[in-house]
Design a protein that fits this description.
Order of helices and strands: HHHHHHEEHEHEHHEHHEHHHHHHH
Radius of gyration: 31 Å
Helix content: 55-70%
Number of helices: 19
Oligomer: single chain
């Protein structure tokens, strides 16, 4: 390691050790090393193309960077707070390795555009992984739904039983949520995939570099149009974390349902042993810890989004050291999100559904009340009058501890004389669900179409690049 910092020329005193610890980001940003080296190699070739360094010097730099990457890959690398960040560590090692030629590496760039590049390269790759993971997760949801086209359950509003639905229909709602998530991440990728390198500290560079050539080497379709914006823009990080927060909200909602459904009180599902844990004191317990942790980690990501917005809200142009604090929330968000995607994709096929318990719950609690009102409307009764009539029938049935379909025809006719014997067939679960034919409704015909359309969309969906 170097004794002096690479920027120490203007300073007459060594940096205080407390300041070194406080300002160092190496324990966080060291995971950027593959992207830092990739960017540096492209920068070397750009300098060579511009005639700023010779081909021999460029080759020497590229070979040295390759050796450093191999050392980092194998953990053969020492980190030191005095070198502050991953950029300085790599440059210092390169100087040790190849000598003074390494001092030419930083020509025409600054750590400001360098770190912006590294984070964009990192987040581009992370977004590809998220897109791929959401593709697989949505496939698992569709398969789960396809296996439960005949499973009836109660649908809920206000956490109260409302109307019967198909379990497949319920799960396809989450397919729609995660599909929107995937589109959000895909859209944000277009704003991440912009190259800032070559804008230097804030004003651009005097060297005749070809930024579009660098972009082509690194696979960027666009270059940043304004040098000040390029080094100070963190919108793309905030946008990713915002999309992640929404996606985690969906995971949290699904987690909450699985937690409730797996309780003895519901008994709708059994979560797999491999995705649950036990109690240290109660031998009988089977706890939905994965789902609970997803719920908890959703709050962590919400906090990261607020931290990033707060960090950026009052920063004047251009780069400020505050922006160093963008990486921890970003990295943790990516790690949590990818873990949740993988865990749910693997857990879904192993969930055991108690069809009988779901059907029993759908058969109780007057879930056929709306259908009885619709029946009366079909016989010419205005809906509000039908609603009031059924409400009275429900009150009557409650007083006798019966469901509507358990009342006799004579009992029902005391509320509306137009009720006939066919009411009982009309109020069966199968008929109630089958009649929900409006587009997007829970009829088996609709749900089967939705599943088929989802399978086709997943098949046609362009797979993200690796």
């Amino acid at each position: 390691m170097m004794k002096d910092k690479l920027w120490s020329g203007r300073f007459s005193e060594r940096t205080d050790h407390g300041v070194e610890r406080f300002t160092s980001s190496i324990q966080i940003d060291k995971r950027l090393y593959p992207y830092d080296i990739e960017g540096s190699i492209a920068h070397c070739r750009t300098l060579e193309r511009a005639g700023v360094i010779s081909a021999r010097e460029a080759d020497l730099l590229v070979e040295g960077l390759g050796r450093i990457k191999r050392d980092l890959d194998h953990g053969d690398f020492d980190f030191d707070d005095s070198l502050e960040d991953i950029h300085m560590h790599i440059e210092a090692r390169l100087l040790q390795d190849i000598g003074k030629t390494a001092q030419k590496l930083h020509t025409a760039r600054s750590r400001n555009d360098q770190v912006a590049l590294d984070v964009r390269l990192y987040l581009r790759e992370a977004t590809w992984k998220v897109l791929d993971g959401l593709h697989k997760l949505r496939g698992a949801i569709v398969e789960f739904a396809a296996n439960h086209l005949d499973t009836v359950m109660p649908g809920y509003t206000h956490t109260q039983r409302a109307q019967p639905v198909l379990l497949a229909h319920h799960m396809m709602a989450y397919y729609e949520m995660f599909s929107r998530d995937r589109r959000r991440f895909g859209d944000s990728l277009s704003r991440t995939n912009v190259m800032p390198l070559g804008t230097a500290a804030l004003a651009g560079t005097t060297y005749p570099i070809d930024r579009r050539y660098t972009a082509s080497l690194l696979g960027f379709p666009k270059v940043a149009a304004n040098s000040m914006d390029a080094v100070s823009d963190r919108d793309f990080i905030i946008e990713f974390v915002s999309a992640a927060a929404i996606c985690m909200m969906h995971f949290s909602r699904l987690s909450e349902e699985f937690i409730l459904w797996s309780t003895s009180e519901f008994g709708f599902i059994e979560l797999p042993d491999s995705f649950t844990t036990g109690s240290s004191i109660m031998p009988q317990k089977k706890n939905p810890d994965v789902c609970e942790l997803v719920r908890g980690k959703t709050g962590v990501i919400y906090g990261h989004l607020m931290a990033l917005l707060t960090m950026m809200k009052a920063l004047p142009l251009s780069y400020n050291r505050d922006m160093q604090e963008d990486k921890k929330p970003l990295f943790e968000t990516v790690d949590i999100l990818l873990d949740c995607i993988v865990l749910f994709e693997r857990m879904l096929p192993k969930i055991v559904v108690n069809k009988q318990a779901m059907r029993k719950a759908a058969s109780e609690g007057f879930l056929n009340a709306t259908d009885m009102a619709d029946y009366l409307v079909g016989r010419g009764v205005p809906f509000r009058q039908a609603h009031a009539c059924v409400g009275k029938a429900v009150s009557y049935a409650l007083s006798r501890n019966k469901e509507l379909n358990q009342l006799s025809l004579d009992e029902l006719q005391q509320f509306e004389s137009d009720i006939c014997e066919d009411i009982f067939d009309y109020l069966t679960l199968e008929k109630m669900i089958k009649r929900r034919l409006s587009e997007g409704g829970t009829s088996p015909e609709n749900v089967k179409k939705a599943i088929d359309a989802a399978k086709k969309a997943l098949e046609e969906e362009k797979q993200p690049q690796a």
